[in-house]
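It is worth pausing here to work through a concrete case rather than discussing structure prediction in the abstract. The textbook approach is simple: state the sequence, then state the predicted structure, then interpret. We follow exactly that order.
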Amino acid sequence: MLENIGSVAGAIWHYLEINNEASVTKLTREIGGNERTVLMGVGWLAREGKIDFEKRKQGTYITLKTHQSDAAAA
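Step two, the predicted structure:
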């Protein structure tokens, strides 16, 4: 199960890298997983500090963080 969540998290990251943003519904549709696993993948990326969330009238959208901390790279 954990390996599957990691794979979905990777698919989400790659999707957002190409498409800039998406809702959970769109991620679920585009990646082809089930919503529960996509949510776990989103949680994985959020815990790692790799994504941001933006609340809009249409729902919550997920984007990759635009900058990584230079301190983390050192």
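Step three, interpretation. The helical segments are 2-19, 24-31, 35-47, 70-73. The radius of gyration is 12 Å.
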